[in-house]
Structure formats: structure tokens, C-alpha cells
Design goal:
The protein is α/β, with parallel strands linked by helices. The chain contains five helices and eleven strands, in the order ββββββααβααββββα. The protein is globular, with a radius of gyration of 16 Å.
Length: about 180
């Protein structure tokens, strides 16, 4: 299974799903991240983005399920997203990576700690691939929703019922002195 390519509008990415979008698409979004983690990638040069909504850290717990849906697992989903972005013309040095989610949502979360395990698995996978997480909002006990604007690279983050905040302002904007998430010209 490969990441689904979105051609227009805003694509909503479900649990265990992965999508890649570029113009004329507008945005990628996912909702109600509990212990799951959204892995977001934005290519500043191509205005292309990818969003992976992973559920579990390790595909070895169910190899047949992982084979059918590698995007459900960190160890198979992250490499799938990265390969798909590179196959569509992106380059490692053009990608900005952000993470959101990984909350402890269950009363007995200290026993399972799926959110923490997902986060650790992502860090390990990124290290193996030589990738760098630019920004993250991970942990705690609130669910999150995220939206990646493909034109600006801005990532809007909503925690629980709170108003949307900005998780990521593109590095190009910061270097050129803007603070509104737009790219200075």
C-alpha cells in the first residue's frame, strides 16, 4: 500500500492512513488524535505535503495487518511516507517535519502508554532515516487535530475544544522576518 495522492481541496486523513498532496490541493488535515500521532511533512520548494496518522509503534505485533496497511504502524508508515515524497520529486533537505498527538488518553495509560511508545518509535525511525523533527506537540492528556496549509506550510493545531493555534511557521518566513506564517517576498 502506498500513500494516496490528493489532487484538490482539503484531504482528511483517517486513522492508519497516509496522504500526499500538492497544488491545486489546499490542505491536509486529521482530527481527534489521541494516542495516535500525526507525522506531517512539508516540502517548501514544491508546496507539497504529506500527512501520516499512525496508531501503533511496531508492526511486528501483527505482520499480516501491517502488510495490508503499513501506514497504521510507525516503523512501516514513516518510511512509506518518506519514500512516497521522494518518489514525487521532493528532496530530504526540502522537507520540514512536525509531529502532533501521542496523548495518554486512557485511565490506565501508565500501563500501555501507547502515545509515549508511538513517540519513541517515531524518534527511532527518524534517526534511522536521518530525518529531523523541526517541531512537535506531543504528550499530555488532550486530543489534537491538525491542518497543514500546503501553500504556506503553516500547521494549525487544536487541542481539545480550545481555539486553533499555530504549531509551525515555515522556517523561510522566520528567516525573512515575517511572523504570520506567510512567506515574505
Amino acid at each position: 500500500m502506498t500513500a494516496e495522492v490528493v489532487r484538490q481541496g482539503t484531504a482528511v486523513v483517517g486513522v492508519g492512513d497516509c496522504r500526499i498532496a500538492s497544488p491545486p490541493a489546499v490542505a491536509l488535515a486529521t482530527y481527534a488524535l489521541g494516542s495516535c500521532i500525526a507525522v506531517l511533512a512539508w516540502d517548501w520548494k514544491l508546496k507539497m505535503g504529506g500527512l501520516l496518522h499512525v496508531m501503533l509503534p511496531d508492526s511486528s505485533i501483527d505482520l499480516s495487518r501491517a502488510s495490508a496497511n503499513p501506514c497504521a504502524y510507525v516503523d512501516t508508515g514513516v518510511p512509506t511516507l518518506y519514500r512516497e515524497l521522494i518518489a514525487r520529486g521532493s528532496a530530504k533537505n526540502q522537507l520540514r517535519w512536525c509531529l502532533a498527538g501521542g496523548a495518554g488518553m486512557m485511565a490506565d495509560s501508565a500501563h500501555f502508554e501507547i502515545g509515549k511508545r508511538n513517540h519513541m518509535a517515531i524518534k527511532k525511525t527518524f534517526w534511522k532515516l536521518g530525518l529531523f523533527v523541526a517541531q512537535e506537540d506531543v504528550g499530555g492528556s488532550e486530543s489534537r487535530s491538525v491542518r497543514l496549509d500546503l501553500q504556506t506550510g503553516r500547521i494549525g493545531l487544536r487541542r481539545g475544544n480550545n481555539p486553533e493555534q499555530t504549531l509551525s511557521i515555515p522556517a523561510l518566513s522566520l528567516m525573512k522576518g515575517t511572523n504570520d506564517g506567510s512567506i515574505a517576498r
